[in-house]
Amino acid sequence: MGIIVVTAGVICRGEKILLAQRVQGDPLGGLWEFPGGKIIPGESPEDCLVREIREELEMDIEVGEIFQVVSHVYPGGKHILLLAYLCRHLRGEGIARECQDFRWVTPGQLMDFPMPEADWPIRDKLMGRS
Questions:
Q1: What is the 3-state secondary structure (H, E, C) of 30-66?
Q2: Contact at 8 Å (CB) between 80 and 118?
Q3: In whole angstroms, what separates CA 101 from the centre of its chain?
Q4: Contacts of 75 (CB under 8 A, 6+ apart)
Q5: What is the rounded distance in angstroms from the CA atom of residue 19 to the CA atom of residue 1?
Q6: Which of 11, 74, 77, 126 has the fewest CB atoms lying closer than 10 Å?
Q7: Residues 19, 116: contact at Cβ < 8 Å?
Q8: Sequence-separated (6 or more) residues with CB below 8 Å from residue 71
Q9: How far is CA 127 from the centre of its chain?
Q10: pLDDT of res. 130
Q11: How far apart are CA 122 and CA 120, in angstroms?
Q12: What is the arithmetic mean of pLDDT over 114-129?
C-alpha cells in the first residue's frame, strides 16, 4: 500500500478556524477535521484545497503557505501524508454538502472536537502546544 497524499485547510475567518465533521458511516465518521481531501493526478495541493472546499462546503478560499506536514500510519497500514495549508475564507456561508456538519471555532475550542490522529499535530500547533 502506497502513501496517500491529502490536503487540509487551516481556514481562517477573523479569529476562528473552520472544522468539518466527517459523515457517519465513513472511515473515521463523526470525527472533526481540518477540511480538504485527496489530490487527484495532475492537481497541485493548492488547487485540490480550493476544489475540495468548494465541493464539500460551497465556500471560496485563498490558499497561503504550508502550515504543517504530517506523516501518519493508521492501524491496518493506511499511510497518509497530510499537507496542511493556512487559508483565508473569501466568500460563502457554507453548506454541508460532503460533510455532516461544520463549525467556526477558536483555537481554544479545538480540544472540544474529537479529531482523527493525523489532525492532532495541526491542532496542537494551533493551540501553541508544539
A1: CCEECCEEECCCCCCHHHHHHHHHHHHHCCEEEEEEE
A2: yes
A3: 13
A4: none
A5: 29
A6: 77
A7: no
A8: 3, 79, 80, 81, 82
A9: 16
A10: 55
A11: 5
A12: 94
Q: Quick one: which H or E segment has residue 122?
A: helix 120-126
Q: What is the pTM of this model?
A: 0.93
Q: What grid cell was written down for 48?
A: 485540490
**The 3-state secondary structure of 70-95, one letter per residue:** EEEECCCCCEEEEEEEEEEEEECCCC
For residue 123, what is the enclosing H or E element? helix 120-126
Residue 39 grid coordinates = 489530490
Copy the grid coordinates of residue 76: 491496518
pLDDT of residue 27: 80
State how far the alpha carbon of 17 is from the alpha carbons of 20, 69, 75, 78, 89, in Å. 10, 18, 28, 27, 9
Distance CA(53)–CA(98), nearest Å, equals 10
